[in-house]
Batch of 2 targets.
Target 1
Amino acid sequence: MPVMLMCPAIMRYILKNRNLLLLFVTSGLFFFNEMLLMPTLPLYLSELGYSHLALGSVLGAFALGVLVMRPVAGLITDRKTRKLSLIIGLVVFIVAPPLYLLSNSFVHLLCVRFFHGTGITFFTTASPTLITDIAPPRHRGEILGHMSIASVFSMALGPMVGVTIFTRFGMPYLLAACSLVGLGGLLMILFIREPHRSPAEQTPITYKEAIFTRIVIVASVVLFIEAQIYGGFFTFLPLLLENVGDQKVGLFFMIASGTMIIGRFSIAHFADIYGRGPMFFYSFLIIIASVVVSAQIDSLTMLIAAALLYGLGSTICLPALTALIADTSDAAVRGRVYSFFYGAFDMGVISAGVSLGFLADLFGLRGMFMIAAGMGFAAALFFMLTIQPQVGHSVRWTLIGK
């Protein structure tokens, strides 16, 4: 009881709701599975003698698997059940890890990594769709924010645990741990009772009809730019920090993750109270500010400031945008809409290394971060001017909200 009383009201609601609680735990296990391999697979491939190009190709095959299967995942999520897509994603995450040990060629390894990426596609398409189905509309943004805390915890703890297992026991034990974690998630998901959808909610609607709406297209374009910034942080911040002394990228992400967790417990409900538009817009501006500060990092104080800003901005930014998509999409097509929406994120992350790397070669790392901030600001203006049909209404809706 004391633990329950310490939780925010919506978190207590999640803990008391059977389906949301099971999905929260399953999401944590699923992303923990992914994070165990995130820092260790490159180390393993390097030990096997793969070149940097080959290593990048193998890691890129994972993202390609995520992107290519998005439409299929969306279709199954809508035409069949949300639960089936979740199960497919978890089964892939159980089966894929042992296949790395059986890979005796580069091509085989690429295929395994591509297959592994499809698991992310199915799970991350179905999970927000099912949460949206279950959550009361007036608390949708807050619940989406709180539910994502599970993945933030996993991202904070998974890499450290993965490296520890890899260095102490070796890759076979780490891959076995990945499969066991995936199995735990599968057992959890089997007990979820998916809300009944009437036949009217399952009326066939084409992929084109589902996604070619103003809000979906504008939100997806902006998410693509946000994903470029996200990919830029993960790819180039370690290189930037190498040039400014002993600042550690791990400290940046630890502070950012901690800020995000605290923020989602305390202010996630703002998207429901003040509106999706203002909460996305202002939080995205905070993320842009973090990019500007990152370009100027020359001390521990600047590093902490950049991390705090990035964590604070990320607290509401994506949950508010996700809730906006949920508000304006029909339940019959929500899976396909989310598949397209998150596909924009996939493309942004995949292309960030190439596009921002090209800019870094031309203007240096600090110049690249400033250009990325400019791209983000342009995306924020694009959102403000186009998210609603009339410019004046769009500006008011973005800046003031309800």
Target 2
Amino acid sequence: MPELPTGAQAAYQLIHDELETDGRPSMNLASFVHTWMEPEADKLIMESINKNLADNDEYPATMRIHARCVSIIGNLWKSKGAVGTATIGSSEAVMLGGLAMKKRWQAKRKAEGKDTSNPNIIMGANAQVALEKFARYFDVECRLIPVSKESHHCLDIKKAAEAVDENTIGVYVILGSTYTGHFEDVEGMSNLLDKIQEEKGWDVPIHVDAASGGFVAPFAFPDLKWSFELPRVRSINSSGHKFGLAYAGVGWILWRGEEFLPKELVFTLTYLGAEEQTYTLNFSRPSCFMIAQYYNFIRLGRSGYTSVIQNSLENARILSFALEDTGYFDLISDTHRSKGVFGYENRTSSTEGIKEFNPALPVVAFKLTDKFMKENPHVKQASITALLRSRNWIIPNYALPPNEDNIEILRVVVRESFSQDLIDILITDIIWATETLAASDSGFDVEILTKRTKDPIAAAHSLEHSAGTPYGRQC
């Protein structure tokens, strides 16, 4: 910190100029996080940026808006009696969902006079790192179920059912894998857990991690059974700042009814001027992004959200077909394939004749074909990423989850701001990067562009390592 103050304009310019070296949000195709809102939403954000969402009594209008958001989302997720709260994001929300399952399991075991020292939770190896953090931070055994091509690179529900025992507090089922965009089979998992309860008496709940899919499925796949219409689903989280179309800083956690929110998680406070209840991990948090979420609900309505999400999915399919048509890439994602058809061996040239698509996120995950790699062994996918970065595109390259570590994929998240014009430019640049590398038969050396930094400050802020690949598990 400097000893003396700096003029406001000089301080602004100093920071502004440094931030100009960041990547362009509109060309950051690595992130699920929404990067654009209308000027009217920006204005509301600035008008409420100084309001603390924790101050219930001081800001009653803000709390009414919060309650409306919970009601709207509960309706989207097919529950009339849902209770819930805004969070900083899905990472906080998924922790709360896990804690509720643990507390309910402990209470039931104690009432039966049984041991409560060895709780476990089940999830696919493709789980986002926040799910594993819950297990580690709150002393729950994490039972990671291996994923494979046969399970569409996400949770194998039969293997998950085999891992259940009397100490299982719940199963995390992901509606929209961060790796490939696939939806896990919530209804199928629910049916298997119903059978387990019939046979063994173990009432194992489901928490749906719908960080991305929670604002995709209701509008693009309204007939898909994944939410509170399934009694086995006790809680759901989602990120308003992903396909909820708000800026980063707002997530949601809902329980199907008040009875599924353990009293141990609810605190009653009086020191802010009135009696109020809280059950979030964070206390002070901004209200402005929750208000931005409400703006979208009012501004877009159901038809507006449906249009935005359907358009993103359509653009993802256009990009998928274009990549396949190059002959250089296999598509690991199945967003563009007919419902029930999976795997890059099943190529189609267009959407013509497809009446219904696989439920999935607008995500395009792809890799170089085996044929291309055999003919061009010197070409690395990480080099494609590096060359694309020289044209301002940010596209990650990373390995699939454990037991698929030998497969690396590139991934594009198609958000609202990614237009068909940008798709044309991106395809041109991907072909340019791929053919440039292929033509460099001596081996185009981009190691200096792709290797991780050794700088200790940057390393301290790098993506952390976990059971899967760091990037794929955290974005």
